[in-house]
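Figure 2 data, in text form.
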Amino acid sequence: MKKIIILAAAMLLSASALAQDGKSIYQKYSDSKGVSSVYVSPAMFRLMKRIPDIDMGKGDVNLSPIIRSLDGLYIINAEDSGIGEALRKDVEKFVSKGEYELLLEAKDNGDKVEIYTVGNSKVITSFVLLALEPGESTFICFTGQIPREELEKTIGAAAGMMD
């Protein structure tokens, strides 16, 4: 009986060790050769909450409401195809847990971009972008209490700027 309990505990611990989030993916790859990484801490976002509105020039894009709602940002850019493939697999495991919803997928000549979110009808708590190009992979994850309406408005305004 003791062996069964120890085995069950070991399995639970190993399963939780496999669980990934933006921070753990960042920690796994940020010190790898051929990888550029950026982490913005909650302390920095607290400082940024005091900044005035950031207008993107032409159009009606104001990033301030979104920036003020963030509490973490993780960016990994891998230029090594082996690391990029491992990164892709880890991100796919991360978002396939069932919490994340595919928001957008775009494919063009071997390039692929996927955007996932998790949250409810009012607030997004995590946003994940995975961009894959031949020889390069980029992972961006930000977390916080992002008002869904603000994010949708910003994405719509940014898309309008591309026209």
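Caption note: The radius of gyration is 18 Å.
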